[in-house]
Write a structure and sequence with these properties.
It is a single chain. This protein is an alpha/beta fold. The protein has 11 helices and 9 strands. Strands 1, 2, 3, 4, 5, 6, 7, 8 and 9 form a 9-stranded mixed β-sheet that branches. Helix 2 links the parallel strand 1 and strand 2.
Length: about 325
Amino acid sequence: MSFKKGIKKLSLIILGSMAGIASILFAVNRTADIPKTGNDFEIIAHRGVHQDYEGSAKGLRRSKAYLTECTATRIFKPTHPYLENTVESIQAAFDYGATIVEIDIRPTKDNQLVVFHDWMLGCRTNVQGNVIDHTVEDLKQLDIGYGYTHDGKTYPFRGKGIGKIETLTDILNRFPDKRFLIDNKNGNNLETAQLIVDTLSQFSEERQKQLYLWCQDKAYEHIKQQLPSIKRLILPRNRHKTFFKSYLLYLGFSEVPNEYKNQGIGLPLQYTKFIWGWPNRFLGKIYKSDMKFYLYINTIEEAKKYSDIPISGIVTDRIEDVGEYFSQLKFNKKRE
């Protein structure tokens, strides 16, 4: 046998062995039992009912451009009248079956928190500048529907968003028995973290237990020390990346580190195919650590395909499309 043929044969043997090992690992991982998750299936409406846009359903994957791009100028053609982070949007999300509505908060010049996504105003409203440079009274004069367009020519929401910016306090008072996932858009800024503490301290401990934070670590630790009743629902993106890198590195056989126990994580559907032991072994490890696991689902087709997998809930940008389906599914599971 020539040297070249020998190398080729050895390469085939190595590749065959690797494929065999991978198949065994996949089979062992996949056939594990999955503990029951209980009946607390959550339907989380991201930004309530909002004008969705191209690229919004990337889940944990975000480009640097995402921080500065104007998403209002590339929405899909509108099919409903709702704008994100407004009273009407939030009410509609709950009406469609959301158990939790995600809202965004920003600090203002007069040390209040308003429910608004962007740090800049020029994308959605009729003025330029940053949110933090304006008082609540100033912000309530703006038209938050001014910048929305799907074709760059027509602006169907202009004049319809005047006075729609609300404070966090106003929203929580308006929906006194509803649960919210509050996304702190100001990162680890401790002044904003303290402002969150001051704002939520106005509410009872029972009310605080209905509120969850999407929050970076330093800010969350600052808030948790003073308001222990308020928890995270889902870990921030940087913690997700650390968790999944470790899980993949150890081929799914490592135990969940203590720092992740009693926490929640989520994934867009397209990433589940890269997870060792999806769904059985993976979810088994998650639930044995008292963690929660959520999938990002936006269509009825996706909903039906994954409805038999015992996840803790879904996060969706299209509550108007999938809310009723999951609400009925949740109701049926409770009856079983």
